[in-house]
Fold Transporter (CPA2 family).
Amino acid sequence: MHHASDILLSLFIIFVAAQIGAEIATRIKLPGVVGEIAAGCIVGPSLLGLVVPNEPLEVLAEIGVVLLLFSVGLETRLDDLKKVGRSALLVGVLGVVIPFAFGSLWAHTSGFDWSKSLFIAAAFVATSAGITARVLQELGALQRVESRVILGAAVIDDILAMLLLGVVVALQAGGEINVGSLLVVLAEAIGFLAIIGWVGTRVMRSKSHWLDRPANPLSPLTIVLALCLGLAFLSTKFGLAAIIGAFLAGMIASETSQREKLEHQTQPLLALLTPFFFVLTGSKIDLKELASAEALWMLAVVTLIAIASKFAGGFLGALSLGKRSASIVGVGMVPRGEVGVVIASLGLTAGVFSPRTYAVIVAMSLLTAMVTPPILAWQLRRHAVKPAPDETAGPA
Amino acid sequence: MHHASDILLSLFIIFVAAQIGAEIATRIKLPGVVGEIAAGCIVGPSLLGLVVPNEPLEVLAEIGVVLLLFSVGLETRLDDLKKVGRSALLVGVLGVVIPFAFGSLWAHTSGFDWSKSLFIAAAFVATSAGITARVLQELGALQRVESRVILGAAVIDDILAMLLLGVVVALQAGGEINVGSLLVVLAEAIGFLAIIGWVGTRVMRSKSHWLDRPANPLSPLTIVLALCLGLAFLSTKFGLAAIIGAFLAGMIASETSQREKLEHQTQPLLALLTPFFFVLTGSKIDLKELASAEALWMLAVVTLIAIASKFAGGFLGALSLGKRSASIVGVGMVPRGEVGVVIASLGLTAGVFSPRTYAVIVAMSLLTAMVTPPILAWQLRRHAVKPAPDETAGPA
């Protein structure tokens, strides 16, 4: 009975802190999500200590970000993604290669041996689609061509990051790299995405009238929520992030005639659950480990490399859209968020990182997540909406 | 990464099992909630073992039932409850006294000493408002006078059960009963309910236009969700169940002009989260401990006493409404659900119950929860709606 009391208090504090943080951020013209992350840092263990991340809160956060990416998927059609396929692929690949190269160079010149350096560099790689998606959604910019490139690139990015992580973990453990098994993993992930994305959308397009039948006992919302949870689980089975599966589920559901109603019904779910993700993300910044000039200097360098290299990858990859759009894409790819945190945790457990390196990598991930939203918001407001070009077709 | 995968699989299985269970139950004319509990029993550890209750799932279940009682509160006004105050009080008191008396008599004649018998009897007492509320809501019967009596009585029941639990735990531990401190606990709980209920509704009635102002940055849904989590927490601090606070929050929110919109927005939250409560409830039935003629016989006797004594309390208490309504109230008070489970767990931990007694008490709690919904649904369909009388006023 007492335990229920503690957890309810945490839920209340997180929920209210998120609202206050978002409100303050909005008043000073920052995206609400920045305020939610900052609120998490304040109520978290390193300052007020009102909220301590634990397993139930992590699960709520996970459900929150899964639903967020589901709702982003609801606003995205496969055909729209296909139109920007080439740019997205280029952004995804360059956005992994450049940060990985610069990250490992920095780590090696800082005195880590090569196998550790590659592990550290892996934390520079994976873009967190959650943060960017939330900003794009807050600003109603999900229909812009840059948003589609970013979302498509985030999927590719996730596949490459997964492969890379497999490689560096194997190297660190002193194992050999089995190119054959890596190719199998790659093929499985791509196969999963292709089959679910392609078949799912096609089935939904031709069969979605079934959802509207009055004889159908389940509401469309129930069916798509089951799809969302199921694909989120399946994508973890293929080594991908749960949010990729949730995004796919949303994209499939966007083909139904019920799309608008579903978007509407998803709102209360997002209102209740996404704050847990952003507040918990913020609560993981350990300010104490960073309270030295040396640590802060390391953090500054790491963060700059992380931002510059990812921006470069996104910018170069999207250059065919023009410089302005390319710089929006570059900025949109910058946030690392929870993926960097996960890799840093792996490194800490494996003894690759010292507590300070861990704190720096986590803080870097979260700093990239905090600086991106205001810049992205400013860029999107400044540049007018650009219609999506069609890269698949010849002269239309 | 792997762990996220496991929990997502559990979420998916629970959600889908609930939908399938509810659908089958509806087809054979049972309330959906019976199907959800049965589905939990099937996917739970004692049969398929696909879902094992753990802390994150318990928290989701708790949030689910909190939101359920919040939504029930949204359909209930304080004035409506006041009108049935006298009947509700009588039902609440008799519904505690009679089951407690019969429960302790049975336990004592079965060979337990008096202090253990009183502990066991405490598990006979507390009505689980969640199950009944869900059936009433499924049937659209929350506006009926019987529903109001049941909901009012559930609040009183919870106060008394809390006091009783304090007494039996103290007795069992060999301590003395301090009447003074019990009175303080009682006064605090009643004071909490009265102040929140009375002041909250009044403030909301006079200030709810504030929610509609366009300058208000937070949506009404966000504000009432914060209220719901906050009062759920506070009510645990006053020794009451979290769902009592959530019910109060809903009742307060029902005074706003936004009530209908809020009801609408709560639906997707209920669709996602309440299945976790009912499936988890069902998953706790340990069929293996019950697989002997002796255990089954004990279960049958205990369940019969639990049902008959609670029905008698509710029926006698509500007799002023007429026999038909009184029998609806009597049946509506029968489910014990999670409260009996909690008391049984306390007893197991304290060494008062053997594993079999524990399994029997848990199974009894859940059996009462499973047999009630179909009977209640049948009664409500059979008897036409009865308008609520006004017990506070003289000749209206």
